[in-house]
Write a structure and sequence with these properties.
binds 5'-deoxyadenosine; binds iron/sulfur cluster; alpha/beta; about 25% helix; about 525 residues
């Protein structure tokens, strides 16, 4: 097992907090989905990380890096660790590629348009004199569709750099993450100005790869997936001062027929329970009150140590760490979701009452074609476990529409599943054919237009469900962790344990990071509006 990380975390203060106006509706994060609209609330790093490089390392004065992240929370958290590695080497993080010596893109390839984005970015970095690179589509076209709790369909475009950055002048350009793993050295052919290509399963090698580039190597790669190590670093720069992410299992062994993750992130590797608990204790001591345990299939956690802790036991142990007030976990796979997890939630109020349980389709025939390993009925049994819990558990999910061969009847079954489960939030996607995946070659592709039609119907249906569900909460009081302040006076925002966004009024001067009691006065499909009635 690798080294633990976050040794001696200390808080740095004085970094601005964006107003909730820009982000309040994007505040509910789809577990392991694109989180680029997340509140970025200051940067908290190990203080030692800013004090220069490792012993014996000569890092030029002007060593700066720019790191842009696409994709899920795992990627966000990997980027926190990558930033930690660079900060420890004496690099300074900058806000834009223009001022950076090292430009890194941590990429996502879960759907085609997400993968295209990095090539669009790389096109913007093409040196003026380059003759070799293949043509790029520099249009920033990626749009993702989500039904958030306010029912709005969010179509999110990443901000384009707008300006073409000339990659000359000795800049190091690197592609990390899932596109790096998937495209490998082909990236050098398409963009000869790239010098580092490294997939997430090889991040342990990153310090060494960066050292090779600093020593003058032109091109370096880290593309193995056959590692049994997880990416742990001594220093992680964390983006959120209250919620700390913690990867407990990396990779995926499930082999869903549409999914690139088993190819891009490699096989499942779990981190030892003692190392996880050590880190949680250090996080609590450093002032974090919420931890989110991450994994593509977090509940498939298999403790590699002699202790052999089950996932539900680990959850309980994390929940008992002094100073931890909220424990979240994402994403759960229905196959490995058992009663023991619900019992852990019931027994530990610090484990949040929210489970993200992606179903993907309401039709057993489609689920079989997707190789999801459960039927509609078996999935509903897992839902019944949660509905029978002693305290209400908020359930959210992911759906794919337009999978090859999905008939109108199959789609109807997805709609009736929405009615039956009554989700609090759904992240819905049009099926996107991906390289290497078994479903790529399946017959009966659904036309794009039809996928769009089905997506629209699904979102309308879910929006109405969320509207009705949230309206029933008017008059109730919830504990809220305050994580946003509006530019408007006396307006704050935060999340409930069930991960609902709560916007509320309070004349208090400083509430960020506090736990407060908020009474709901009105509701939208995607968020609640309340007023503060007390502190915790
Ligand atoms: N096409 C569309 N959506 C996909 N997802 C994963 N692969 C694909 C694909 N090829 C969705 C699933 C998964 C979420 C992270 O992304 O819903 O749960
Ligand atoms: Fe992809 Fe399926 Fe693994 Fe999730 S469980 S990461 S959808 S292969």
């Amino acid at each position: 097992m690798g080294k633990s990380f976050d040794i001696g975390l200390e808080r740095l203060t004085g970094i601005g907090v964006p107003g909730i106006g820009e982000t309040q509706e994007g505040g509910v994060k789809p577990p392991l989905q694109d989180t680029s609209a997340d509140l970025k609330i200051g940067h908290y790093v190990d203080a030692s990380a800013t004090k220069g490089g490792q012993a014996g390392m000569v890092v030029p004065q002007e060593s700066t890096f720019y790191l842009e992240t696409f994709g899920c929370q795992m990627n966000d958290h990997d980027s926190e660790k990558v930033a930690g590695v660079l900060l420890a080497r004496g690099y300074r993080q900058v806000d834009g590629p223009e001022a950076a010596k090292v430009i890194l893109y941590n990429t996502c390839s879960i759907r085609e348009k997400a993968a295209q984005k990095v090539f669009s970015r790389l096109g913007e970095l093409r040196p003026a004199d380059d003759q070799e690179g293949k043509s790029f589509n520099t249009e920033d076209t990626e749009k993702e569709h989500r039904v958030h709790r306010d029912g709005r369909v969010l179509e999110k475009n990443h901000p384009s750099l707008r300006k073409i950055v000339n990659a000359g002048g000795g800049k190091i350009i690197g592609v990390l993450g899932c596109v790096a793993q998937q495209e490998g050295e082909e990236i050098f052919e398409r963009a000869p100005w790239v010098s580092l290509v490294c997939g997430s399963a090889s991040y342990r090698k990153l310090p060494q790869l960066i050292a090779e580039l600093e020593a003058g190597n032109r091109r370096v790669t880290g593309l193995d997936t056959d590692t049994d190590e997880t990416f742990e670093t001594e220093i992680t720069r964390r983006d959120n001062p209250w919620r700390a992410y913690l990867t407990i299992i990396e990779g995926c062994d499930k082999a869903c027929s549409y999914c690139v993750v088993p190819f891009t992130r490699g096989p499942e590797r779990s981190r030892g329970s003692a190392s996880i608990l050590d880190e949680v204790r250090r996080l609590a001591e450093a002032g974090y009150s919420e931890v989110q345990l991450l994994g593509q299939t977090v509940n498939s956690y298999a403790d590699p140590s002699a202790r052999k802790m089950r996932f539900s036991e680990l959850l309980a142990a994390v929940a008992e760490v002094r100073g931890i007030r909220r424990v979240r976990f994402t994403t759960s796979h229905p196959r490995d979701f058992g009663k023991d997890i619900v019992e852990a939630i019931e027994a530990h109020p610090t484990i949040c009452d929210h489970v993200h349980l992606p179903v993907q389709s309401g039709s057993t025939a489609v689920l079989r074609a997707m190789a999801r390993t459960y039927s509609r009925e078996e999935y509903l049994e897992k839902i019944a476990l949660m509905k029978a819990a002693r305290r209400p558990i908020s359930i959210t999910t992911d759906m794919i529409v337009g999978f090859p061969g999905e008939t109108e009847k199959d789609f109807e079954e997805t709609l009736t599943l929405l009615d039956e489960v009554q989700y609090d939030s759904v992240f819905a996607f049009k099926y996107s054919p991906r390289p290497n995946t078994p479903s790529l070659k399946m017959a009966d592709a659904i036309p794009e237009e039809e996928k769009g039609r089905r997506l629209g119907i699904l979102m309308d249906r879910q929006r109405e469900i969320q509207r009705v569900r949230n309206e029933k909460l008017v008059g109730e009081t919830f504990e809220v962790l305050v994580d946003g302040k509006s530019r408007r006076e006396n307006q704050w925002s935060g999340h409930t344990s069930s991960n609902r966004v709560m916007n509320f009024a309070s004349p208090e001067r400083e509430l960020l990071g506090d736990y407060v009691q908020v009474k709901v006065v009105s509701a939208m499909p995607n968020s609640l509006v309340g007023e503060m009635v007390g502190r915790m």
